[in-house]
# Entry
Amino acid sequence: MGQMEATDVRVGVLGCGNVGAALVTLVDEQSGVVSERTGISLEVAAIAVRNTSVDRGVECSADVFTTDAEAVVNDPSIDVVVEVMGGIEPARQLVLAALSLGKPVVTANKELLAAHGEELYVAAEGAGVDLLFEAAVAGAIPIMRPLRESLAGEPLTRVMGIVNGTTNFILSRMSDHGATYADALSEAQSLGYAESDPTADVEGFDAGAKAAVIASLAFGARVVPADVYHEGISGVGVDDIEAARAMGHCIKLLAVAERKTSVDGGVEVAVRVHPTLVPLAHPLAAVNDSFNAVFVEGGAVGELMFYGRGAGGRPTASAVFGDLIDAAANLRRGHGAPIGALRDVRIAPIGEIESAYYLSLEVDDRPGVLADVAAVFGGYGVSIKSMEQVGMGAEAQLRFITHLACENDFQATLGGLGELDAVRSIGSVLRVIDD
Ligand code: NAP
# Structure
């Protein structure tokens, strides 16, 4: 085979923090191999940061660094722009500017994509160049490209993901070591997995943003974070985890995107994030600590699971690097890979979803109570799959897992149960995925 003629591609990197510095190092380490395999010779020609006096620990001469991110984007000698600075502005303006100049963009910024994805997709499509963002969802795990390319013709029905490593770490600690939520959270903070203000992770906002991106790509639909119903894990107790285990389940924070058929036969999408009982035999139950996984179900493909590291500088940089090579190769071919038009679809509200449920009730321990409780379930068409009684007398608790039911019917059941004299209180209520 003849020697491939090398194409030089000059890369402008916006940001040199955890991900940016790891990317620059990877390019330095691997560019020879990439050049041999692809004929593309990558050079990091400019890096924008806020403070040029910080040592980034990367093999680059000082004159590559600048505080002027706009100048990097506008520099005619820069072929591809990598945005790893984070946040909405100025990242959004810089990405739009690069695309309008016909430069492919690679970004790891889920916040930006979730909030302004469509504007950016349209700009990339208009310019005929790539906008690639593999690292934005589930870090190192290749899931965006499979959804965009390998599964583009697949009638996908549901995508479920453990896409937030912080909450998975916390739930794993509670489950494996009996740690309280507060102790597990402070351990996550001391290990650098959780921010000092953990709200975005523990209340499900981060997973919600990623769920919106996943749903958009999986179903070719316009889905923004405001469309995503979310509940976090701050209300999950060790008792819930133990009760779930006794009934053959673990608890995971799942992002669930489903394609449904509306009453008039059209496509609608339901997207939600909540703590979920996962059967111990389900592949997602084996995803522990800070690992992520995405479980994809389709009419032809059956079931697929993608598993790996969802965060961390080097794993995330690996996904950015793959995109960078792809963008450079497409640039050489003279055309980008479009995302395709996103459709406007109805977003089904949470009340319309179908799920199985877990419920615990504190009840009076006397004859006839179970029959009264069962009658309320039956009255709203919610059927019980399994039930157990724990404790006796004043401590008596009933725990149920239902078959699939409509959320509105289940909520009505809770209302009816709350009115029974024998029900002292309604305890935990959690959704359950089917096995
Ligand atoms: P980071 O460590 O905070 O680094 C951000 C970098 O951007 C810093 O070098 C900062 O410069 C630079 N920067 C910020 N604003 C700038 C501006 N206006 N002009 C010039 N430079 C600017 O962030 P990160 O953890 O690498 O994350 C980067 C992106 O990757 C984010 O979108 C994040 O959501 C995404 N991501 C990260 C991970 C992860 O594990 N870290 C995983 C998946 C996705 P200074 O250093 O001078 O302040």
Q: What stands out?
A: The CA atoms of residues 114 and 209 lie 5 Å apart. The longest helix spans residues 18-38. The chain has a mean pLDDT of 94.
